[in-house]
Write a structure and sequence with these properties.
This protein is an alpha/beta fold. 63% of the residues lie in helices and 12% in strands. Helix 6 packs across helix 9 (299-310), helix 17 (465-477) runs antiparallel to helix 18 and helix 26 packs parallel to helix 28 (689-701).
C-alpha cells in the first residue's frame, strides 16, 4: 500500500449556529448570512495565511501552517461578525493530517470537527494540543473548559475557550459543556498501572498488531514521568499462570488496570480501551472507535494520550510519548511485525526475519526511531557490537534532532548495555550516568531506577563494591518496598551478587532470598532458575557441594521445562565447575562436554568461550598444559571477537600460567602483563592479584638477576596489598605467594631481609593451610574430602609444604 503525504497543520471548523432554523424561517436571509460569513472569512483567511479546504453547507474546513495564525484568524472572524443577528462556533485542533488532492483527512480533522460542536456560540474553542504547539510564552489567553471524551474517536481532549480582548471579549461558556464534562482520577501522586496486552479479536496472524502496540504503549507510558508501569514481560508471565487480568493486577499490587481489544477488518481497525481503578474495579474511562490502516502509527499514541490525561499526568511534558512514530503505515507495520518476532522469538530464523523487516522499514522511513533502536538492540544481543554502536549512535542523533527525549533515553540505555556486553565497564558506567540524568529530568522513575541499578552493576564489575551498593540501594528506594517487578527482583539479585564478591555470603544469601521471593510472586521461573544457579555458587563457596549440585541441577531442570537451552547450558557449565572444584575431573569433563555441544548447536559464541576456558582449566588441572594452552587461546579468540575485555584479561592470565608450566617464560610474562593492563583498563585493578602473583613467579623463573628479583618482589608486594579475605582463589594465591617469598628469601644477600621474607613465606603458607582445612571441614563424605585434598595439585602442594614446615618446627 502506498503512503499518502502528511503535514502537521492547525485544522479549523466553522459553523453558523441555528442555520437550519434560519433556513426554515427565511431561505433568502439564510443565504445572505452565508454570503456575509464567506466574504469575511475569505478575506481574513488570505490575511492570516489560511487555506479554505472546502465549504460544508453553512460551515467550512480550513487549515493553517501555524496555531497562532489559526487563532488570530478565528478571533478576527468572530470580532468582524459580532453584533449581527447570527453567530458562529469555531473549533481548532492541531495534528498531522493526510493531504489529499483537494482535501485533508485523518484524526485531527475529526477532532477539530467535534471541538467546533462544543465551542461557545460566538466563541472559539481550541484543544490542549493546539496550545502546546505554540511553544513557551506565546500562547493566547484562554479559559480551561475541562477534559472531554470524544466518543468514537478514542480521544480525550483538554478544551479551552479563547479569550477576546478587553474591548471585544469572546464568549467562554458553552451550553453543551455545562453537563457531561469528564471528571477523572487526578489525586494519585504516583499511579501504578498494569497494561494487559490488547486482545486480538481477529485471526491469529494479526496477533503482532496487538502484542507490539501494547509493548510500545507500556514502554512509552513508563517514560512519561511520575508513573509506575509494570513491565509487559511480568504481565504476560502472570497472565499465563493466574489467568484473569484482575488477578494479575492483584499480584503486581497496582492501582490501575488497562484492558483493550483490537480487530482488523480489511482496511480498518476496531479498537476499544478501558481503565479500571483497583481494588474496587471501578471503570474510570472507556471508549471504542475505528481507525483506518493509514492511521496505524497513531493508535499507540492515542491510547497513551488518553491514559495520561485520565491519570492527571502532563502528556506534553515529555516529547515522543504520544506522537506517531512515522507517517509511513507500511514501514510501521513492518516494525510491529519485527518487534513481535524478535521479542517472542522461537529460534534464530525469527531473529533473521526480524532483521529483514527492520531493514525494509528503515528503507521506507530512515528516521523511524523505534525501528532503528530495535535494530541496534538486536545487533547488540547477537554479538555484532560495532554495528550496534553505529546504529544506536545514529538513533541518538536523530532523537536529539527531533527533540524526542523518550527515544533518546532508550537509545542511550542500549548503548550502555552494548558497552557492558563488551566488558567496557567504565564507558558503560559513564553512559548510564547520562541516562540517569536524562531520566531524572523527565521524572521517569523506572528509567531512574534502571540507570541506578546499571551503574551499581558496573561498579560491582569494577570491584568498587561499596559504591555499587550505594547505587543499587538507591535503585531499590525509588519505588518503595511495595513494588513487585522484575526490575526490583533483578536489583536485589545484583546486591546479592555484589555481597558475594565482597565475601559476605550470609548477606548475599539474604538478598538472593528476597529476589527469589519476588520471582516466585511474578511466576518468573527463568528468574527462579537463575537464582538457584547463584545460590549454588554460594553453597559451593561454603563447601556445601551436595547442596550446590542439587540447586544447580534443579535450575537445569527448570530451564529444560521452559525449553531454555542456553539456561540449561549455563547450568551444566556450573555443575562442571563444582565437580572440578571437588577434584572430580571425570564428572567435570562430562558436564563441560555436554555444555559445549549445546553452546555450539546454539551458536552462542560467548558461552562457547566460557566453556572453552573451563575445559582449558580442566586440562591444566590434569597436567595437560599443551592442551590447556590451545583451549585457552581458543577462548581468548572468542573474547576478542565479542569485544569481551574482562574475558580476554582472564584468559590471558590462564595462558600465562600455561606458558609458565611449559617453560615459555617470555610468552608467559607477555600474557600476564597484558592481562594486568586490561584489568586496569576496565577499572578492575583489584582483580589483578592472581596475574601479579603469577608474574612474580615467572620473573623469578626467568633468571637470578637483580632486575628480575626486584621486579618479582614489586609484583608480589602489589599482589599482597590487593589481597583481601574475599579475593577469588585466595587459597591458591596464598600458596603461590608463599613460594615466591621463599625464593626471594633464598636470593636475598642480606640476612635480615632474607629472614623477613622467609617469615612472610611461612605466614602465607600457614594461612593457605588454614583456609584449605576450613573448606575441607565443610565437605560431606570421606571420599569427597579425600578427592578434594589429594586430587588437586595445589592442595597437595600446600599439605606437603605444611608437613615440612611442621617437621622443621619439631626438629629445628
Amino acid at each position: 500500500m502506498s503512503n499518502p503525504d502528511r503535514a502537521a497543520l492547525a485544522v479549523m471548523f466553522t459553523d453558523v449556529v441555528g442555520f437550519t432554523s434560519l433556513m426554515e424561517m427565511s431561505e433568502e436571509r439564510a443565504l445572505e448570512v452565508l454570503r456575509s460569513v464567506r466574504e469575511v472569512q475569505s478575506r481574513l483567511l488570505e490575511e492570516h495565511g489560511g487555506r479554505l479546504v472546502k465549504e460544508l453547507g453553512d460551515g467550512s474546513l480550513c487549515t493553517f501552517p501555524s496555531a497562532s495564525a489559526a487563532v488570530r484568524c478565528a478571533r478576527s472572524i468572530q470580532e468582524k461578525l459580532s453584533g449581527r443577528d447570527f453567530i458562529l462556533r469555531i473549533g481548532i485542533h492541531w495534528g498531522e493530517v493526510i493531504l489529499d488532492e483537494h482535501d485533508v483527512l485523518g484524526d485531527p480533522v475529526n477532532v477539530a470537527s467535534r471541538i467546533q460542536g462544543l465551542a461557545p456560540p460566538g466563541g472559539v474553542c481550541v484543544s490542549g494540543e493546539l496550545l502546546q504547539s505554540y511553544g513557551p510564552g506565546r500562547r493566547p489567553g484562554t479559559r480551561p473548559l475541562g477534559l472531554r471524551k470524544l466518543k468514537g474517536l478514542g480521544r480525550l481532549v483538554e478544551l479551552f475557550a479563547v479569550l477576546g480582548t478587553g474591548r471585544r471579549p469572546l464568549p467562554v461558556i458553552s451550553p453543551r459543556l455545562k453537563e457531561g464534562t469528564e471528571s477523572f482520577v487526578r489525586s494519585h501522586e504516583l499511579p501504578s498501572v498494569a497494561v494487559m496486552p490488547l486482545s486480538n479479536l481477529g485471526p491469529s496472524n494479526d496477533d503482532f498488531y496487538a502484542y507490539s502496540i501494547s509493548a510500545d504503549l507500556v514502554s512509552d507510558l513508563s517514560r512519561a514521568g511520575r508513573i509506575l508501569v509494570s513491565p509487559l514481560s511480568d504481565v504476560l508471565r502472570l497472565k499465563r499462570v493466574v489467568g484473569s487480568a484482575e488477578l494479575v493486577a492483584e499480584r503486581l499490587r497496582v492501582g490501575f488496570l488497562v484492558k483493550g481489544t483490537l480487530w482488523r477488518k480489511g482496511q480498518e481497525f476496531q479498537l476499544s480501551i478501558e481503565l479500571l481503578e483497583l481494588p474496587a474495579g471501578k471503570l474510570i474511562w472507556t471508549d471504542n472507535w475505528m481507525e483506518d490502516w493509514y492511521e496505524l502509527p497513531a493508535i499507540k499514541g492515542k491510547m497513551a494520550d488518553g491514559l495520561l490525561k485520565v491519570l492527571g499526568l502532563e502528556r506534553g511534558a515529555i516529547t515522543g510519548i504520544t506522537d506517531s512514530e512515522t507517517a509511513r503505515s507500511g514501514a510501521y507495520e513492518d516494525y510491529l511485525r519485527a518487534s513481535e518476532l524478535y521479542w517472542r522469538k522461537r529460534d534464530s530464523a525469527d531473529t533473521g526475519r526480524a532483521l529483514q523487516l527492520l531493514e525494509r522499514a528503515l528503507e521506507s522511513d530512515p528516521r523511524m526511531l523505534p525501528a532503528r533502536i530495535l535494530l541496534g538492540t538486536i545487533y547488540s544481543e547477537t554479538g555484532f557490537h560495532g554495528r550496534a554502536a553505529d546504529t544506536l549512535s545514529a538513533a541518538c542523533d536523530m532523537a536529539l534532532e527531533k527533540g524526542d527525549r523518550a527515544a533518546h533515553l532508550n537509545a542511550l540505555n542500549w548503548i550502555g548495555i552494548n558497552l557492558w556486553r563488551q566488558s567496557r565497564y567504565r564507558e558503560a558506567r559513564n553512559t548510564f550516568l547520562r541516562t540517569l540524568r536524562l531520566a531524572r529530568s523527565m521524572n521517569d522513575m523506572a528509567g531512574e531506577a534502571r540507570s541506578l541499578s546499571n551503574i551499581g552493576l558496573m561498579d560491582s564489575n569494577m570491584c568498587n563494591y561499596e559504591r555499587a551498593l550505594d547505587y543499587l540501594e538507591q535503585a531499590l528506594s525509588i519505588s518503595g518496598t511495595e513494588d513487585v517487578s522484575s526490575l526490583r527482583a533483578n536489583t536485589l539479585c545484583n546486591i546479592g551478587l555484589t555481597r558475594w564478591h565482597m565475601g559476605d555470603n550470609s548477606l548475599a544469601l539474604e538478598f538472593y532470598g528476597k529476589a527469589m521471593e519476588l520471582y516466585e510472586v511474578l511466576e518468573d521461573r527463568n528468574g527462579m532458575a537463575y537464582m538457584m544457579r547463584n545460590l549454588g555458587i554460594i553453597k559451593r563457596n561454603l563447601g556445601l557441594y551436595g547442596e550446590a549440585l542439587d540447586l544447580t541441577w534443579k535450575a537445569a531442570g527448570i530451564y529444560e521445562e521452559l525449553g531454555d537451552r542456553l539456561g540449561r547450558c549455563h547450568s551444566l557449565n556450573s555443575m562442571g565447575n563444582i565437580s572440578m572444584f571437588l577434584g572430580k575431573y571425570g564428572e567435570a569433563s562430562e558436564y563441560y562436554g555436554e555444555a559445549f555441544v549445546m553452546a555450539k548447536e546454539l551458536d552462542d559464541k560467548w558461552t562457547l568461550g566460557i566453556v572453552r576456558t573451563n575445559l582449558g582449566n580442566l586440562a591444566a588441572a590434569r597436567g595437560e598444559y599443551r592442551e590447556a594452552l590451545d583451549l585457552h587461546q581458543e577462548a581468548l579468540e572468542y573474547c576478542r571477537l565479542l569485544g569481551d575485555i574482562e574475558g580476554e584479561a582472564e584468559n590471558l592470565e590462564l595462558i600465562g600460567a600455561d606458558h609458565q608450566k611449559l617453560g615459555h617464560l617470555n610468552d608467559a610474562r607477555s600474557a600476564l602483563e597484558e592481562s594486568i593492563s586490561l584489568m586496569e583498563e576496565i577499572g578492575a585493578g583489584s582483580r589483578t592479584v592472581l596475574p601479579r602473583t603469577r608474574l612474580a613467579g615467572v620473573l623469578l623463573d626467568s633468571g637470578n638477576s637483580e632486575d628480575s628479583t626486584a621486579a618479582a618482589l614489586e609484583q608480589a608486594s602489589l599482589a599482597e596489598g590487593l589481597l583481601t579475605a574475599d579475593t577469588s582463589e585466595r587459597t591458591v594465591i596464598l600458596c603461590m605467594l608463599s613460594k615466591v617469598y621463599a625464593e626471594l628469601a633464598g636470593r636475598s644477600p642480606e640476612e635480615a631481609e632474607g629472614s623477613g621474607l622467609a617469615g612472610r613465606s611461612e605466614s602465607f603458607l600457614r594461612e593457605a593451610h588454614r583456609c584449605l582445612m576450613e573448606t575441607v571441614a565443610t565437605i560431606s563424605g570421606a571420599e569427597s574430602r579425600r578427592t578434594f585434598l589429594e586430587g588437586i595439585e595445589s592442595h597437595r602442594e600446600i599439605i606437603a609444604a605444611y608437613m615440612v614446615l611442621g617437621t622443621e618446627e619439631t626438629h629445628p
